[in-house]
Amino acid sequence: MVRKLACGLFLIACGLILLKKTDVGVVLMTNFSDVNVGITYVGTAVAKGAVCLDGSPPAYHLDEGFGAGRNKWLVHHEGGGWCSNMSTCLSRKDTRLGSSKKMEKLLPFIGILSSQQKFNPDFYNWNRVLVRYCDGASFTGDVEEVDPDTNLHFRGSRVFVAVMEELLAMGMKKAQDALLTGCSAGGLTVTLHCDQFRALLPRATKVKCVTDAAYFVNVKDISGARHIETYYSDVVKTHGSANNLPPSCTSKRKPGLCFFQQNMAKLVETPLFVVNSAYDSWQIPNILAPDTADPDGRWHDCKFNLTKCSTDQLKTIQDFRLMFLDALKELGSSSSRGIFIDSCYEHDQITVQETWLSDDSPALDGTVRYLNWQRQLEIGT
Ligand SMILES: *[C@@H]1O[C@H](CO)[C@@H](O)[C@H](O)[C@H]1NC(C)=O
Ligand SMILES: *[C@@H]1O[C@H](CO)[C@@H](O)[C@H](O)[C@H]1NC(C)=O
Ligand SMILES: *[C@@H]1O[C@H](CO)[C@@H](O)[C@H](O)[C@H]1NC(C)=O
């Protein structure tokens, strides 16, 4: 994949006009440096074989709730793409996306993770957890054997359970409310594990899920190839994921197809909220115009800077939006599902302060801001 999927600061462009916002981002990062949250390693997971790609223990960051939020939990999954074969998993193994030895020990909590009321009015005082992504398959893999030559561990499914068990023991088992959230590959983790998360919690807990920048659509690339479909099917094969994907989906389709929310999201029984851009700035370079489909590099400048696109390329991108909206219809209309779709050239919105809640964060009809859908999501109201 061309760019690593990650939750963090990205250039934002709305309505296909690039607005440079890096300066704002730097200011925000600086301001948040005093709310960095330390890492916790889940040492007990190792004995269960619930380990990262390199065999190291999984990890998370927890900022404890306070006041009225003391018994409310928000568990967020970070993104970071996938690895689809031995060679890409080997290159990932000794990075922060494959090994807790390489992870930052402190991370800023921003957007939906912020502890400051003015930046995150609905969740600032909840227990907020950032689960580190370290398996390369949205926590779905489970292969018992470990090849001594590569020392690659495909155990994401066990990691998900081990981390949740630790959080339950830390007090989440008494949660009044629990929200499972995630961006990108972490947003896919949310959809694939939402009902499992629900089942781990007591019946009395109100549970909802939010999947951000993860409505990856199954469309042909510009060369006509089914690039993303093949790619996901390789991820599932490499990690031995098939048995750990929801049977409601795998009983009907090839397991690789369950990575597409257009097939999977409607099967989730727990309330699910979808946040995505119709011009997702990861999907366009990696699903619509991946390098494999563009050997001459005609799309290279355009996909990273829309002002450099030709008229034809812009048309292709606008057609992608229509395909995205078609795929979104697959969600159906259930009162337990909600959506927020905007047209910023953006990827990951809930952990980026500018798109989560700021003076000019994406809004519905110019007045209704994120705050409103945060309120709809607010559990217990
Ligand atoms: C960041 O901190 C500086 C200095 O404390 C302040 O002037 C500025 O307004 C802050 N920015 C935001 C977005 O809060
Ligand atoms: C592994 O995956 C990468 C990225 O998708 C691809 O470029 C490469 O050709 C694959 N390697 C093999 C051996 O299949
Ligand atoms: C995008 O390209 C335009 C010129 O076509 C340039 O002015 C602008 O700085 C570029 N934006 C970024 C973010 O590189």
Automatic annotation (TrEMBL):
<keyword id="KW-0961">Cell wall biogenesis/degradation</keyword>
<dbReference type="Pfam" id="PF03283">
    <property type="entry name" value="PAE"/>
</dbReference>
<dbReference type="GO" id="GO:0009505">
    <property type="term" value="C:plant-type cell wall"/>
</dbReference>
<keyword id="KW-0732">Signal</keyword>
<keyword id="KW-0964">Secreted</keyword>
<dbReference type="GO" id="GO:0071555">
    <property type="term" value="P:cell wall organization"/>
</dbReference>
<dbReference type="InterPro" id="IPR004963">
    <property type="entry name" value="PAE/NOTUM"/>
</dbReference>
<keyword id="KW-0378">Hydrolase</keyword>
<keyword id="KW-0134">Cell wall</keyword>
<dbReference type="GO" id="GO:0052793">
    <property type="term" value="F:pectin acetylesterase activity"/>
</dbReference>
<comment type="function">
    <text>Hydrolyzes acetyl esters in homogalacturonan regions of pectin. In type I primary cell wall, galacturonic acid residues of pectin can be acetylated at the O-2 and O-3 positions. Decreasing the degree of acetylation of pectin gels in vitro alters their physical properties.</text>
</comment>
<protein>
    <recommendedName>
        <fullName>Pectin acetylesterase</fullName>
        <ecNumber>3.1.1.-</ecNumber>
    </recommendedName>
</protein>
<comment type="similarity">
    <text>Belongs to the pectinacetylesterase family.</text>
</comment>
<feature type="signal peptide">
    <location>
        <begin position="1"/>
        <end position="24"/>
    </location>
</feature>
